[in-house]
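Memo to structure team: turn this sequence into structure tokens by end of day. - J.P.
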Amino acid sequence: MKLHVEIDATPEELRSFLGLPDISALNAELVAKFRENMDQGVAGYDPASLLKPVLPEALQAMSQLQKTFWQTLAGGAKPSE
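Reply from structure team:
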């Protein structure tokens, strides 16, 4: 069996539909911080260090989203009669 799903939506529409937060302001702040540190030539600068405080929460949120997606998909699929 093949299942093909096509969704015609902008990233903003899909994010809103899935109930995900708009993190564009956070992204802009992180990029500005990366750029600032790179411009200053900070010795031993590790961009991943900025993400360490939020990474566990982000991974947990993605895990929950994936679980919800599969539960919804499994519950929504009904056998044809």
